[in-house]
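Q: Got a minute? One more chain.
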Amino acid sequence: MNIGIVCYPTFGGSGVVATELAKVLANKGHKVHILSYSRPARLETSANISYHEVSINSYPLFDYPPYALALASQMVNLIEYENLDLLHVHYALPHATSAYLAKQIMIEKGKTVPIVTTLHGTDITLVGKDPSYKHVVEFSIDKSDGVTAVSEYLKKETYKNFDLKKDIKVIPNFIDLERFKKSNKSHFKKAICPNGEKVVVHVSNFRKVKRVPEVITVFAKILEHGIEAKLLLAGDGPDRQKAEQQCREMGICEHVRFLGKLDEVEEILSIADLFLIPSGSETFGLAALEAMSCSVPVISSDIGGLPEVNVEGVTGYLCDLDDTECMAKHAVNILSDEKLHKRLSKNARKRAEKFNQETIVKMYEDFYKEVNEKVLQPG
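A: Always. Here it is, folded:
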């Protein structure tokens, strides 16, 4: 197939999933065209992948350039000149809205292209609930030819927050098991932990919802229990300065490293003994899945889609939101009990294998075929 994929280029889950999906589809022989306002972080050069940048011109008339219209226009160009068979947009706003406009323009030109929309999270649970956008989100989802959500939790939230007629198919996020697997990085671990300390890891965009201060609080409690450990924080964002100040105030800076944004986060996960993700909102929990794929036990908050990934007592533990005592208790147990750690690590990898990219991408391919037949061969 000749497939257009529209996404945000950022390190967030939707952009990562869209880019990884494009790479797998391209490896399977599909022609893929990535459309975004800048090159996605994980996009690599490939014979079957083309990157198209959305150009946005500034005019004195506009305080804010009309990105949705520029995107729709670029979609029309892609459909018309690259002869797309299907357009897959990730994130409802404004991608699904722009896709609907592009489709109507193409119908006027005598060509119909199916639109698939994948819902990822804040497009439903945060941005989409804004009264300023609600009606547009509802319309855009309902006018999509096929709709998917990355978790059962997100599917339920979508139906709860919007008056929709469209069926939503759950296709979870996936993992590259070859990339995200525990590898021998003993020299790296020795450099960071010269005295054999345990390694606790957190990866996020340091937004408030990720609750990085709770990560540091839990880690401080681990140290208080006499566990020798290092905390590695990968990523960057609004709460980084606050987190750094918190470490100074708690007097634990010598045990904490801020690594910034990393392209190869699997190298950090390969030396991790424990992964903390106390988020206030996660529609899936891709960071947790990446850790589990590297055989790292996970302690997470019991919210959103995280329980669909991290299984209580099997791959790690789930705690109530903001319950740092619960997280610290489980963390100490995992880090001090070698037998428990080994069992959880093995189960984490086994659980991650259920989300392997071959199985999940096949689900997308089958869905593309189903939507194509429904739109192009109705009845």
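A: The chain has 14 helices and 13 strands.
Q: Perfect, thanks.
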